[in-house]
Write a structure and sequence with these properties.
Blueprint: E1 25-31, E2 40-45, E3 50-54, E4 56-62, E5 65-68, E6 76-82, E7 91-96, E8 101-105, E9 117-120, E10 125-131, E11 140-145, E12 150-154, E13 166-169, E14 176-182, E15 191-196, E16 201-205, E17 217-220, E18 227-233, E19 242-247, E20 252-256, E21 268-271, E22 278-284, E23 293-298, E24 303-307, E25 319-322, E26 329-335, E27 344-349, E28 355-361, E29 373-379, E30 383-389, E31 398-403, E32 408-412, E33 414-420, E34 424-427, E35 434-440, E36 449-454, E37 459-463, E38 475-478, E39 485-491, E40 500-505, E41 510-516, E42 522-529, E43 536-542, E44 551-556, E45 561-567, E46 573-580, E47 587-593, E48 602-607
Antiparallel strand pairs: 1-2, 2-3, 3-34, 4-33, 5-32, 6-7, 7-8, 8-9, 10-11, 11-12, 12-13, 14-15, 15-16, 16-17, 18-19, 19-20, 20-21, 22-23, 23-24, 24-25, 26-27, 27-28, 28-29, 30-31, 31-32, 35-36, 36-37, 37-38, 39-40, 40-41, 41-42, 43-44, 44-45, 45-46, 47-48
């Protein structure tokens, strides 16, 4: 349970965070493991031999409502948003692949919509974009019809209705799969850019500003490029728009840098990796340096790739983030989901075995991201496309998806934040039964690490953090045969600025001091008996006598006592005293604090 405090001594109702079935969590510790200024939690799960790392952040929760699209076998495959009737509420338009139509849903501003109005398109509408083509301040539409080799223009009326389509050819066997809108030639009139998958080309339709367009101008790509997605942005900071596309067939991103007059320089490419299969790209300033970066969804390598821009048309090599071995990526978007001024990465993922989801990498500045967080879309619901807007006017971004196999729209309305995402599970070894965890900087790299007491395998383990919420493999140190280490703590015991470790062994009735060297390596320094049949059950560390050397306090479950070991500057300890807690007290845990503000430390004991 997590109780969020109000700073006045009171707390919110607890947030219950599941650790999973039969995990038997035994110990908890906290710290900022990924340098995002949010507290993270690590839990020792003795029942399943792992550590659960819960990375704290301003994660968001979403509803999962469904809007049914009228029409059997509509197969919606793309979605876009715009204000089509000028009521300042977001509306939706959906491409219905099998019905060869688009459906327009007018929004009420509360996350609900009217019954759609349908308009015929060409064969297999695959992509859609929204813009004002004729300068009347009313949104119009363009649709890419893959199997008819055309785009369709729909001119809008102020009431949210549209004229019948006007088609433009993209060329024989071109298969247009992606369409976007921008003023490519700087004449203040919107133009249309199309990715033609099968003709390996990018098509440009220059707008006249009256809702009509010139015939397509082709920009050819190398054979086998198979462009799947196209975007327009200023990629080299020269105030001239450029074109970038995801070339699935050649595993790269292609870029045409613009001259500002509708013509372009020769193609350059950025590799997305061997057999990566880029299917979708988007741009945004992901590291807050004012320069445009490129984000790509790689379906075959099951990664999202980030190309950080240098502001001059060059980019750093791709940084990849895994989306999971079962992912099947459809598209990528960016938005500031949690209003922290850092862009987040949003992925539509078909998944496998019907486990579809929306995946989010939450950004926290500097081009850094949290671990992959998923939001389930429902068993056997196949999302194909997403649009992100504030559909219910609550100043929180929502997500609308099309489920092609359910003839429906999934409306995921953002509700509240939650402090932790699904945990990263870190194995501690077969039959290890971790019982206690503590955190600290064991190799002095300013990345938090943690150490655990493995009661089943009679050792302690150290996991070194990488600063991004990930950890190295476990390094183990024996505590002796049949020792059953039960609790662990860390501190600077010999004043050498390197963290040391103390562990209490339940079955051998002792504590062990391991000396640290600041490089992640430790050695056994000394062993102190806690008494025959004592069963030490908890450790707490503080400078009890204020001599600037840390002392150790132990609970003795079997003898119903508190044991105090006084430290010295050499890392040695002497047993000062024991304090009886009474018959059958069964002390399980001890904490140290100045309870009565007399500048002296007091002991708080939980008696089982």
């Amino acid at each position: 349970d997590v109780f969020l405090g109000y700073s006045n001594g009171t707390f919110d109702e607890p947030s219950i965070i599941s650790t999973g079935s039969e995990t038997l969590p035994k110990s908890i510790a906290s710290g900022d493991f990924n340098h995002d200024n949010w507290t993270d939690i690590v839990v020792a799960n003795s029942g399943v031999d792992n550590i659960g790392a819960y990375l704290g952040f301003d994660y968001r929760t979403f509803t999962n409502d469904t809007i049914i699209i009228p029409g059997k076998s509509a197969v919606p495959i793309c979605i876009a948003a715009g204000d089509f009737n000028n009521d300042h509420n977001w509306d939706l338009v959906v491409c219905n692949g099998q019905l060869q139509s688009i459906g327009v849903y007018l929004g009420y501003g509360n996350g609900t919509f009217t019954v759609p109005t349908s308009y015929p398109t060409g064969n297999t509408p695959k992509s859609i974009s929204v813009g004002d083509f004729n300068g009347d301040k009313i949104n119009d539409l363009v649709v890419a019809n893959r199997d008819e080799n055309t785009i369709s223009i729909f001119i809008g009326y102020a009431n949210g209705s549209f004229q019948s389509q006007v088609p433009y050819s993209t060329g024989s066997s071109s298969s247009p799969t992606s369409v976007t809108i921008s003023d490519i030639n700087n004449d203040s009139k919107l133009d249309i850019v199309v990715a033609n998958r099968d003709s390996n080309s990018i098509g440009l339709f220059v707008g006249y500003g009256n809702g009509s367009f010139r015939n397509q101008i082709l920009n050819l790509l190398p054979n086998g490029s198979t462009p799947r997605w196209v975007i327009v942005d200023d990629l080299n900071d020269d105030d001239i728009l450029d074109i970038a596309m995801a070339n699935y067939g050649l595993n790269n991103i292609g870029i045409f840098f613009g001259y500002g007059n509708g013509s372009f320089r020769d193609l350059i490419t950025l590799s997305t990796g061997n057999i990566s299969g880029p299917v979708s790209i988007v741009t945004g300033d992901m590291n807050n340096d004012k320069w445009i970066d490129i984000i790509v969804a790689n379906v075959n390598s099951k990664t999202v790739g980030l190309f950080l821009g240098n502001g001059n048309g060059t980019f750093l090599p791709q940084i990849t983030y895994s989306t999971g071995s079962q992912s099947d990526l459809m598209s990528v978007s960016v938005a500031d989901i949690n209003n922290d001024t850092s862009l987040d990465i949003i992925l539509v993922d078909l998944g496998s075995s019907g486990n579809s989801n929306v995946g989010v990498f939450y950004g926290y500045g500097g081009g850094k991201f949290t671990l992959h967080t998923t939001y389930e879309t429902g068993l056997n619901f196949d999302p194909y496309s997403i649009v992100i807007r504030d559909f219910d006017n609550d100043n929180r971004l929502d997500m609308a998806l099309v489920y092609s196999n359910k003839d429906s729209i999934g409306m995921m309305l953002q509700r509240r934040s939650k402090p932790f995402a699904t945990p990263l599970l870190i194995p501690t070894g077969k039959d290890s039964r971790p019982m206690s965890v503590a955190v600290g900087y064991f190799n002095n790299d300013n990345h938090l690490d943690f150490t655990i007491a493995n009661s089943g395998t009679n050792n302690i383990g150290i996991f070194l953090g990488d600063g991004n919420g990930g950890f190295s493999g476990q390094i183990t140190y024996s505590t002796g045969n049949n020792s059953t280490p039960i609790c662990i703590a860390v501190g600077h015991f010999n004043n050498d600025t390197y963290l040391d470790i103390v562990v209490a062994n339940e079955q051998t009735n002792n504590i062990m001091i391991f000396q640290g060297y600041g490089n992640g390596i430790i050695t056994l320094l000394t062993i102190y008996s806690t008494g025959i049949n004592s069963v030490p059950s908890s450790i707490s560390i503080k400078d009890i006598n204020k001599d600037n050397y840390l002392d150790i306090v132990i609970t003795d479950y079997n003898s119903n006592e508190i044991l105090v070991f006084i430290g010295s500057n050499k890392g040695n300890f002497s047993k000062l005293n024991s304090y009886s807690l009474g018959y059958n007290a069964g002390p399980k845990s001890v904490a140290i604090a100045d309870i009565n503000n007399d500048s002296l430390y007091d002991l708080i004991v939980a008696n089982y």
